[in-house]
Specification:
about 350 residues, alpha+beta, five-stranded antiparallel beta sheet
């Protein structure tokens, strides 16, 4: 009976808040905390939310997402998870499940529109053979968003996504200019990420020595926060890949081993990228059995990172057949790759 009374009280309080315009919104931070209250103000660099006792200003680099009261929570949570896992092509179908009468606030409509255009941009940038027309079509709505919504907490995401589209178009100088927008942010994690992205541009052009200069510049920035250290670990993985391309395999492997040892089990993207890079390095060394073990770490433990998982499945499908004489497991890996990542570059063969 007590539980029922509490439940009724919460229901009435929520209804009263909605009726009076006092919405109960949610801010999910990147560390997993949930702050509930009413969004009072927003800029590119912070969001202010008022609770019953105080107002809290949250830097946008600490925000994973904002959920607005009255939004179709179940669908949007699925959308956010799909974006987080890199399953961008699933997003439009998920969003199409939302009926017009479920969208009763402009803020919710804005979130839905942004998720749709962000997913389209990322899917275009990651296409196996992107054409200039599709990249431009995905980029224009993002450019319009950047111009029309300069105070959105999504603005840095949008600028990075435009940079990725330009990188996929082989327009590295223009891509770098959009990555510079992250460097102008007030947080070390974004400054480190900007240099990481510039280094990846050099890797894309098969310039590992030039990439190393960006990575070393990134690692020279003090990583004094958990978010900055997360980006620094991603830089170390990328640096190891460039060292391996320069045939500095021992140095590269030592760096990857240190990343793996220094990461938390919850750092799934870091560990997925690190084990995938380690597998590639071990293949270069001819250590095919050890490479299998590295790729299995990705497949069994860190499959939430789509690109690393697709790479691991592609390599495992050959290793199972050639090294281990297990055609059954080779077939299973190949079929999972084709079904889960039909548009991945690792599935192009």
């Amino acid at each position: 009976m007590f539980v029922r009374v509490i439940g009724l009280f919460v229901l009435l309080a929520t209804a009263s808040a909605s009726a009076s315009g006092q919405y109960i919104d949610r801010v999910r931070t990147v560390t997993g905390s949930l702050i509930s209250g009413r969004i009072q103000a927003m800029t590119a660099n912070s969001v202010t939310i008022s609770t019953s006792s105080k107002e809290t200003e949250i830097p946008t680099n600490e925000i994973a997402w904002i959920g607005y009261q009255t939004e179709p929570t179940e669908v949007l949570d699925e959308v956010r998870l799909a974006l987080q896992k890199g399953m961008h092509r699933e997003v439009p179908e998920l969003l199409d499940r939302i009926k017009p009468d479920q969208v009763r606030r402009d803020e919710v409509r804005g979130e839905i529109d942004f998720y749709r255009l962000l997913a389209a941009a990322r899917a275009a940038a990651e296409s196996v053979r992107p054409d200039s027309a599709s990249l431009a079509a995905a980029g224009k709505p993002l450019l319009d968003f950047i111009k029309s919504q300069p105070d959105s907490y999504h603005i840095y995401q949008a600028q990075e996504a435009v940079g990725d589209l330009l990188a996929a178009s082989d327009r590295s100088e223009r891509a770098a200019a959009y990555y510079d927008a992250l460097a102008a942010a007030p947080w070390p994690d974004y400054k480190i990420r900007a240099l990481l992205l510039k280094g990846r541009l050099e890797q894309q052009q098969n310039k590992p020595d030039a990439a190393l200069r960006w990575f070393d510049a990134a690692l020279a920035i003090p990583a004094e926060t958990r978010l900055a250290e997360f980006q620094a670990q991603l830089v170390r993985v990328a640096k190891a890949k460039s060292l391996a391309e320069m045939a500095k395999l021992a140095e590269a492997q030592a760096l990857l081993d240190s990343v793996i040892a220094g990461s938390e089990p919850s750092d799934k993207e870091i560990l997925a990228r690190a084990y995938a890079a380690l597998g590639e390095l071990l293949l270069k060394k001819g250590s095919r059995k050890e490479a299998t073990e590295a790729f299995l770490h990705v497949d069994l433990l860190y499959s939430a990172h789509a690109d690393s998982h697709a790479l691991a499945l592609a390599r495992l499908s050959r290793l199972w057949a050639e090294e281990w004489k297990r055609p059954d497991r080779a077939k299973a890996s190949a079929e999972l790759l084709k079904s889960r990542y039909p548009h991945s570059k690792w599935n192009s063969g």
